[in-house]
Specification:
Rossmann fold, globular, alpha/beta, two-stranded antiparallel sheet, 7-stranded mixed β-sheet
């Protein structure tokens, strides 16, 4: 599913319209709204930087990515949004296929590129290499936003288990990258939480041990 949402100057190819003003910051109190508003000034676009939203499903990563994309459209930037699984379906398995380079050409020109949902579908080696080339093409030239439900340590499992290739991708993304890690309740289930249809998740308690200077074990609990 996709659509083109034009403004008087720019355009966004995206399946949804989600603005930053529609985001429930009060529902995710652990998220720094000031940081998001700072990103909305689009200095990261002007500087060709990368923004990475990480966290579990439903916390609002895609919403924030599209919201920033719409801010870019308003001032005339072209923005292209695509889920990584959808991109994988569009890449020919034969690297000699002319459509392979054509897809690279399509994803290179937009001023801002948004890659959504890294981690839901593992990629084969051909698609993984395509992503590496795409990142190389845009590195230091084309700003990007990425969203992922996996920690960076788990990204190799997405990119065909290739740790060297994954390290090269992350090296370029994180070099001038801003990482926003969102931990909280599912934004999609907020109405059910409020209505009491389902119970809100309790804080995870971890039992930690620390040995004091007297040699005795001190036990305490930490919540996260």
């Amino acid at each position: 599913m996709s659509g083109v949402w034009p403004s008087s100057r720019g355009w966004l190819i995206s399946p949804w319209v989600k603005t930053l003003d529609q985001f429930g910051f009060d529902f995710q109190p652990g998220l720094d709204e000031k940081k998001i508003r700072e990103l909305a000034t689009l200095r990261f676009v002007e500087q060709a930087d990368v923004v990475l939203f990480t966290g579990p499903s439903g916390v609002g990563k895609t919403h924030l990515a599209i919201g920033l994309g719409l801010e870019a459209v308003r001032i005339g930037y072209s923005v292209y949004f695509i889920a990584l699984s959808e991109l994988a379906d569009q890449i020919p398995k034969d690297m000699a296929d002319s459509r392979w380079l054509e897809k690279l050409r399509v994803l290179s020109p937009p001023r801002l590129l948004i890659i959504d949902e890294v981690g839901y579908v593992p990629l084969d080696p051909v698609v993984s290499y395509f992503v590496f080339l795409l990142v190389c093409r845009r590195y230091d030239k084309g700003p990007m936003i990425w969203t992922s439900n996996k920690s960076f340590a788990e990204w190799a499992s997405v990119f065909a288990g290739d740790e060297v290739l994954t390290a090269a991708i992350l090296d370029r993304l994180l070099h001038h990258g801003t990482v926003i890690n969102i931990r909280g309740k599912s934004y999609r289930l907020r109405d059910k939480f409020h209505a009491g249809t389902i119970a809100a998740p309790t804080l995870l308690k971890k039992r930690l041990k620390k040995r004091g200077s007297d040699g005795k074990t001190i036990r305490y609990y930490n919540t996260c």
